[in-house]
Amino acid sequence: DESMMDPAAWSRNFTFDHCFSSTDESDESYANQETLYNELGTRILENAWAGYNASLFAYGQTGAGKSYSMMGTGAVLDERLDPKHYGLIPRISFALFKSIDDAIQSRSQAQGGGAGGPDEMVYSVEVSYMEIYNEAVHDLFNPKKHQSFNQSEKIKRLRVREHPLRGVYVENITTVHVTSYSEIGQLMALGGRARTVAVTNMNENSSRSHAIFTVNFKQRQRSSMGNGQPDLRRKP
Fold first, then answer.
1. DSSP secondary structure code for residue 85 in this structure
2. Residue 33: in which H helix or E strand, if any?
3. pLDDT tens sequence across 202-225
4. How many CB atoms lie within 10 A of CB 49?
């Protein structure tokens, strides 16, 4: 069949919002980590404040730069690390806490500098970190739940459930409440070390494993009920 030999018969058109060049740093169109954050990370943050679920999904072959783009060379924003190598997740997390501090300060100034008030906004941030390998979910914040270096012991796998209100979730995964980027950065490093140990001791191939770092950001308005008791109402 001649049509099978015609390149036009196999051509496909794809549309991309962005196409980043990251091969030559001397090129004026070179996209560094800051460029990625400005184009992608800021939108994630804006959607979170607007009350929408948002996600970043990195897909590609081994060595393509997925981990570097998402995490960078260090999970913690440390002065000893070159800032240009911070990844998307650390940058978004750092910006989230900065935006929370700015919102609290702005609201305090609007209320005359007083703390609290009848319509005080309360913010909370929780994080979890999991790895998926061979359709098994591992809790990276509590590696003892799933790591077993004794072959006679069974490896405990976390179960993926679906709730009519919550949607899809991982049962019994460790969720940690954090109050600053310093805490979230330390947890990123902790989960990263747990993942590396798992790969080394269990002979897992990192190219076939997937990591998911989840940040749960909530805003609630504390208003006074008729009986003087605080009423926490969830806001977007």
1. G
2. helix 33-36
3. 444 455 678 899 999 999 887 655
4. 14
Amino acid at 163: H
User: Rounded distance, CA 85 to CA 134, Å?
Assistant: 30
Long-range contacts of 154-161 (CB under 8 A, 24+ apart): 158/130
CB 40 within 8 A of CB 88: yes
Residue-wise burial string across 51-88, b where 16 or more C-beta atoms lie within 10 A, e elsewhere = eeeeeeebeeeeeeebbbbbbbebbbbeeeeeeeebbb
Q: Which secondary structure element, helix H or strand E, spans residue 163, and what is its range?
A: strand 160-163
Whose structure tokens read 């109402």? 233
The CA-based angle 54-55-57, given to 5 degrees, is 160
d(CA 35, CA 45): 15
Q: What is the pLDDT of residues 134-165, one digit of tens each?
A: 788 889 888 665 444 444 344 467 899 998 98
Q: What residues contact residue 38 under an 8 Å CB cut-off, 6+ apart?
A: none
